[in-house]
Write a structure and sequence with these properties.
Elements: E1 5-8, E2 21-24, H1 40-44, H2 50-73, E3 83-84, E4 87-88, H3 89-109, H4 112-115, E5 120-123, E6 131-134, H5 137-159, H6 175-199, H7 205-208, H8 217-241, H9 247-267, H10 277-304, H11 310-339, E7 343-345, H12 351-370, E8 379-380, E9 386-387, H13 415-421
Parallel strand pairs: 2-7
Antiparallel strand pairs: 1-6, 3-4, 5-6, 8-9
Organism: Brachypodium distachyon
Family: Belongs to the BROX family.
Protein name: BRO1 domain-containing protein
């Protein structure tokens, strides 16, 4: 293949490693891109010390084996009973294997002679092509960072699956798990931010055009923002459960969520919609964007309701009605997301979602009933209650507070210093 890139797609078969169903899915991740086996000894021959070749081979073989195993079992069969503080033990081990591989791998990108000697092949998930091969060690680094981020998303999904605690209450997602996922989301965003700013620019433009959609600029940015947006979602859910958190704090977090999901919509590339993950990804963004709007307009309406004027009452009603409409939109998008192949099961609602489903319909109807005297009947709901047909008031604008956890590429493995001395 020389120094270029190649893609392969078998039009006559179902994609390998793509399940028809993925169990309960709270966090979207398009499966795991799995690396294919590479023969370093054949590629380098006498160009590289045997100890480095053996170390590279051993570390990458471990990553290949573990990522293949995790991709098969990860989303098909969530292991609630075997999760650690940061999710499944298999994902923790895979993340450690990737972190140990990077310092040795980075030695290849430091040498112009070694950088383009190995053809790295990775299986795709969202791209039309089943595999993408590229003779550039920076492509391998980019793929490793993306996989590290997806493993974090997988850990977050494990943490957010409802569990039984044997205390007489039904399955639920604990406060500890929700707090832990904020750190996991920021970690994932940090890996992707590093991939976007430090690694992607190292790949020549002509090769960048050959990258699979899974790891193109727009998708890396969108997935990083998804980590931040879902981190804020967890913070909002925790604030909702905290009696000391004010409505102003909850509204601010909800408005920040809107901005994150708007940026995701603006960043996400055009995804293939005929082969599962791309369509599912698009529906997930639609679902969470609508849910963010529902929460923001709901808390905005409650704050406006604290006013004592007829105008504030009208704006509060309009905001609550908007929140109800966006909640309906988010429920439809959620159902479409879960029914799109690979199908997934709807998990028990918790946090922000559960609160909105419980409160928005009830509070909207209550506010309408209390204020029927304010307006003539402009529209009637299926409950027979008149509704105001006016646009909702604008939401306040807040700066985004959550940032990715800072991540820098690691230092070279000491083996490379020995190689340089030789």
């Amino acid at each position: 293949m020389g120094c270029g890139a190649s893609k392969w797609k078998d039009p006559g078969s179902r994609r390998q490693g793509r399940p028809r169903s993925v169990g309960e899915m709270v966090i979207f991740l398009p499966g795991l891109r799995v690396p294919r086996t590479v023969d370093f000894s054949q590629s380098f021959g006498d160009h590289l010390d045997k100890s480095i070749v053996e170390r590279l081979s051993a570390l990458r073989a471990r990553v290949v084996a573990m990522s293949m195993q995790e991709s098969v079992v990860a989303l098909k069969k969530p292991r609630r009973g075997s999760t650690t503080r940061h999710g499944g033990s298999g994902t923790a081990n895979l993340l450690q294997a990737l972190e140990e591989y990077l310092p040795v791998l980075l030695g290849l990108v430091k040498s112009s002679e070694l950088r383009n000697k190995v053809q790295f092949v990775w299986a795709n998930q969202e791209d039309d092509a089943e595999e993408t091969a590229m003779t550039d060690a920076w492509y391998e680094v980019l793929s490793v960072l993306h996989l590290m981020a997806m493993v974090c998303f997988l850990q977050a999904n494990y943490l957010l699956l409802p569990r039984s605690y044997g205390d007489g209450y039904g399955p639920r997602v604990s406060e500890e798990s929700r707090r832990a996922t904020v750190d996991v989301f920021l970690k994932a965003a940090g890996y992707l931010d590093c991939a976007f700013h430090q690694v992607l620019p190292q790949i020549p433009p002509e090769k960048r055009r050959e990258l699979p959609v899974d790891i193109v600029e727009g998708n890396l940015k969108a997935l990083s923002l998804q980590g931040l947006g879902q981190g804020v979602d967890m913070q909002l859910g925790l604030a909702i459960d905290n009696p000391k958190a004010t409505l102003a704090v909850k509204r601010r977090l909800a408005c920040e969520m809107i901005k994150y999901w708007q940026q995701i919509k603006d960043s996400i590339p055009e995804l293939p919609l005929t082969d599962g993950w791309g369509k599912k990804h698009t529906l997930f963004v639609k679902w969470k964007y609508a849910e963010a709007k529902a929460s923001a307009y709901y808390f905005h309406g409650l704050i406006l309701d604290e006013g004592d004027t007829e105008k504030s009452d009208e704006m509060a009603i309009s905001s609550l009605q908007a929140s109800e409409e966006f909640l309906k939109e988010s429920k439809k998008a959620s159902e479409a997301f879960h029914s799109t192949p690979p199908t997934s099961r709807i998990s028990i609602p918790f946090g922000t979602t559960k609160y909105l489903l419980d409160r928005i319909p009830r509070d909207t109807i209550s506010k309408l009933q209390d204020n029927q005297h304010l307006y003539t009947q402009e529209g009637t709901s299926n409950t027979g209650i008149s509704r105001m047909i006016t646009p909702p008031p604008p939401l306040p604008d807040f700066p985004l507070a959550l940032n990715p956890e800072e991540y820098e590429l690691p230092q070279l493995d000491p083996l490379w210093k020995k190689e340089a001395n030789n």
